[in-house]
Specification:
Elements: E1 5-16, E2 19-30, E3 34-38, H1 45-52, E4 60-65, E5 68-69, H2 75-79, E6 83-86, H3 98-103, H4 116-122, H5 124-128, H6 139-152, E7 157-161, H7 169-184, E8 188-192, H8 196-201, E9 205-210, E10 213-219, H9 220-223, H10 227-233
Parallel strand pairs: 3-8, 3-9, 6-7, 7-8
Antiparallel strand pairs: 1-2, 1-4, 4-5, 9-10
């Protein structure tokens, strides 16, 4: 694995109005690396993601992607640098078909690029529903569309924010299998999920936030039995 950091957030601060949400958070993701972002609800995980992806303007610090300072860039420009985003709540287009939801994000890639046939091979259930409207799909199917859409960008890194939230256990297991498959292809991943044990099992490193600050980080395997981690997560 290359040690080159593809995504670097350095001393990031963020506010919502007068509320100071992030207090100097730093996080990096190397090419091909899987990183977990953990913390209880309201600790700043989604704000950090949004600040990194241009969806919320950081009030301090810097964000660099592929060596470029993107702290003040728009989200669409950041996406074109090779960043796929699977937002909390999925964010698919309910009035577009599965096919249209996937093709709207298509971006030329490498020889091993993610094309529509490859995405449908990875998500056979979507192949069966290719002409169904996004709003007619189950929650699990919508999540597959959201992940497939991110892959159609042919990204170097995918950010997954609560990808298993609200799904049936069988579908949750399927989503984790898909995440493992993506990781095996060499795409870097940043994973946020309430199931911290699953996050630890599918990542190389984890960063833990508490009240908008990094309070713990380290190798996922080493953190798996950490009483300190359990204390920060309230489990």
């Amino acid at each position: 694995m290359s040690v080159e950091a593809f995504v670097v957030a350095d001393d990031v601060h963020a506010h919502y109005g007068q509320s100071h949400i992030l207090h100097g958070v730093s996080l990096s993701i190397r090419r091909g690396e899987a990183v977990g972002l953990l913390g209880r609800n309201g600790m700043g995980k989604t704000t950090l993601i949004r600040s990194m992806l241009g969806l919320h303007r950081a009030s301090g610090g810097t964000v660099r992607i592929a060596g470029r300072d993107v702290t003040r860039d728009r989200a669409d420009r950041i996406s074109r640098l090779g960043v796929g985003y699977v937002p909390e709540g999925r964010g698919i287009f309910p009035n577009l078909s599965v096919r249209e939801n996937l093709l709207v994000a298509a971006r030329p890639g490498r020889a091993d690029s993610w094309t529509l046939p490859r995405v449908l091979e990875t998500f056979p259930r979507l192949a069966e529903r290719i002409d169904h409207g996004g709003g007619a799909l189950s929650g699990g199917e919508q999540q597959m569309v959201a992940i497939g859409r991110a892959l159609m960008l042919n990204p170097d890194v995918i950010v997954l924010d609560e990808a298993t939230e609200g799904l049936a256990p069988k579908i949750v297991a399927e989503i984790w299998h898909i995440i493992a498959t993506i990781r095996a292809t060499g795409i870097a991943t940043l994973v946020v999920d309430r199931n911290y044990r699953a996050v630890l099992a599918h990542t190389d490193r984890c960063v833990v936030l508490q009240k908008g600050r990094v309070v713990l980080e380290g190798d996922s395997r080493s953190l798996a039995d950490s009483a300190t981690l359990a204390g920060f997560l309230g489990v």
